[in-house]
# Entry
Amino acid sequence: MTRWLVTGGAGFIGSNFVRMLLRERPDAEIVNVDLLTYAGNLENLADVEGDPRLRFVRGDVAATETWAAEARGPWDFVVHFAAESHVDRSIEDPVTFLRTNVTGTQRMLDFARAEGCGTYVQVGTDEVYGTLAPEDPSFTIDSPIRPNSPYAASKAAADLLARAAWRTHGLRVVTTRCSNNYGPYQFPEKFLPLMITNAMADLPLPVYGDGLQVRDWLHVDDHNRAILLAAERGRAGAVYNIGGHDGERTNLAMLRDILSILGKPESLIRHVEDRKGHDRRYSIDSSVIRAELGWEPTVTLEEGLPALVEWYRSHRAWWDRVKSGAYRGYYEKMYGARLGGGGSPAR
Ligand code: NAD
Ligand code: TYD
# Structure
């Protein structure tokens, strides 16, 4: 058996990662530690819930002592996804981001050392590099760290603490920095699921500012395949940028594609006040992970976007429950009486 401790496995990317591990690594035994904040939803894993190789522990990464007894090492891998992840919320409430993303990462690094850990993966974001002008070259791993939002700043701090744990204590740390992901089970406060579900319901589509901001979209499975490679074959201390599969699009271009796939009118688009400090463009140079680990993205936006819309069409029950808040009762119903779990209550 190969033992994986995954944090944030009830969120968007983490739940897709857990599913990939169960599918592609038959010897994987997984403990998923998640606090189940508003962004955590065990219904994201309902299809693999009965798998005996997967165990859930409700716990706060910033309070590892409250659940460590339920997740004893040694671990072959610790993959740290758990984070507060929404830029707009970080502008309103930065302290929660510091607690989870900064303190939580330090606690997870200490936990990994104390329990024993083969490789620790710090799941990071390209947003730590800040913003690009239209003609600038893509972010490389040597681009300066210049975060512009409290979210990005807290993730930059987390990356630097992970590096320090490698240099100071010799913990085998590998850090990834990925561009914007899309795929199943993304919480509908983020751009694509918000727009798709609103458009399906003929609700307005709030576009920040002129809508000409550029993101470098990558399918979540391509991201997770890169994380798997980084965990199993990554170099200690390495940083791997992930993204850049012909995925650069303006927000408006993405919206027009979605509306045309759905057969909905562009009159649903509403330009609203811009986000404060809104990064204009992200673009990723992923040449290091391509050369070192042979990673290649496989899903183009041309195939990925229609498939995404189709997923939201066929999973209306899932997003109806998220949008209405009904998903909040699932954990209590399924696990409440059986599992202790640590940590502070979900927000
Ligand atoms: P998400 O918000 O969908 O999920 C986050 C998960 O972490 C949730 O299940 C939540 O309950 C859990 N969590 C939050 N605070 C916690 C705490 N204190 N203790 C334990 N669990 C806690 O986020 P996501 O989009 O899946 O992102 C996962 C990771 O990938 C994050 O570290 C994020 O910074 C990074 N990332 C995301 C993207 C993207 O496009 N979404 C791109 C690059 C990197
Ligand atoms: P988001 O999904 O929040 O990801 P990030 O800010 O981390 O890149 O937003 C993606 C882009 O979409 C970003 O440029 C902000 C924009 N956006 C809107 O125009 N309207 C919205 O309602 C949201 C949530 C985002």
In short: The first helix runs from residue 12 to 24. The radius of gyration is 19 Å.
